[in-house]
Design a protein that fits this description.
Blueprint (H helix, E strand, L loop, with lengths): L3 E3 L2 E3 L6 E6 L16 H13 L2 E6 L12 H8 L2 E3 L1 E3 L8 H7 L3 H10 L11 E5 L7 H17 L3 E4 L6 H11 L7 E4 L7 H10 L2 E5 L12 H10 L6 E4 L9 H17 L1 H15 L3
Parallel strand pairs: 3-4, 4-5, 6-7, 7-8, 8-9, 9-10, 10-11
Antiparallel strand pairs: 1-2
Helix pairs in contact: 1-9, 4-5, 8-9, 9-10
Cofactor: a divalent metal cation
Keywords: Hydrolase, Metal-binding
Family: Belongs to the metallo-dependent hydrolases superfamily. Phosphotriesterase family.
């Protein structure tokens, strides 16, 4: 039977509750010097705030080599009563040193499978998804090799593949590679950051292909994409793709509004456009299916 693989073990999908389908408790990158999310006490405050607003599960998309702090996640989840799902995978090359990439380049699929089935770094905590990344309007050689490894890990485990789309672009290229060439079932692919490129035609084509569509995190470039998100979700729901939709906060720096903002400000706004029933499907039913394997 399919289950969500949380940091405390397998959980029945219908026990996840309200899900932030893409967020981060811990993350660091050389591209964001001085803006790391590394403090355990701060993570506890943010997770507690999310839980107090009715949140049940946070899916941390932080992949290998980016400060996941895996050993801290079980106690945070246990103490605060919020499920956490951790990720394996690899981000864009710019987020890593050349030395780190050289150390894993030839064993990516095995690394992903090990972290999904045996545990991460000797902690015994298993990952529950594979995080990879595309580029701006396309895929470079690093993205292609990483996605090939993710596809192999998906074939061997069934774990979903969550994809960072740079500024929301490249969704169809990702699907051409993962699903068209590598044989990944479209329902196992979660396309992230679609809210950052409010191209309703691309959204519709990705939904028609069978992928899951994540609208996750406020824009950090301008506000034009944010106020279009309710209309994008409504258009997809009206076209028959309500079961494809996911929401997240994507906290990546200390000043990101994040997961509490998702429930405190974004959800009430979306309720006006979508209604309570559809919003519950997006926050509860859809992620329960997306993250069960």
């Amino acid at each position: 039977m399919s289950a969500a693989h949380t940091v405390l073990g397998e959980v029945a999908p219908d026990r996840l509750g309200v899900v932030a389908a893409h967020d981060h408790l811990f993350i660091r990158s050389p591209l964001l010097p001085g803006q790391e999310l590394h403090d355990v006490a701060d993570a506890a405050v943010r997770l507690s705030g999310f839980g107090a607003l009715g949140g049940g599960t946070v899916v941390q998309w932080t992949p290998y080599g980016m400060g996941r702090r895996i050993a801290e996640l079980p106690s945070l989840s246990r103490d605060l009563g919020v499920h956490i799902i951790a990720a394996t995978g690899l981000h864009q090359a710019a987020h890593y040193t050349a030395e780190l990439l050289d150390s894993v380049r030839d064993r990516l699929a095995e690394l992903f499978v090990t972290e999904l089935t045996e545990g991460i770094g000797g902690t015994g905590v298993r990952a529950g998804l594979i995080k990879v990344a595309g580029g701006f309007h396309g895929l470079d050689a690093h993205a292609v090799s990483t996605m090939r490894a993710a596809a192999e890990a998906n074939r061997r485990t069934g774990a979903p593949i969550a994809v960072h789309l740079e500024l929301g672009t490249g969704a169809l290229d990702v699907l051409d590679l993962l699903c068209g060439q590598l044989g990944v079932a479209p329902g196992s692919v979660i396309l992230g950051h679609l809210n950052r490129s409010p191209d309703f035609t691309v959204h519709r084509l990705a939904a028609e292909a069978g992928a899951r569509l994540a609208f996750d995190g406020p824009s950090r470039a301008n506000h034009a994409t944010d106020w279009r998100m309710p209309d994008a979700l409504r258009a997809l729901a009206d076209a028959g793709f309500a079961d494809r939709l996911l929401l997240g906060g994507d906290t990546v720096t200390p000043d990101t509004p994040g997961m509490s903002h998702l429930l405190r400000r974004v959800v009430p706004r979306l309720e006006l456009t979508l209604g309570k029933g559809l919003l519950e499907q997006i926050l509860v039913t859809n992620p329960a299916r997306a993250y069960a394997w």
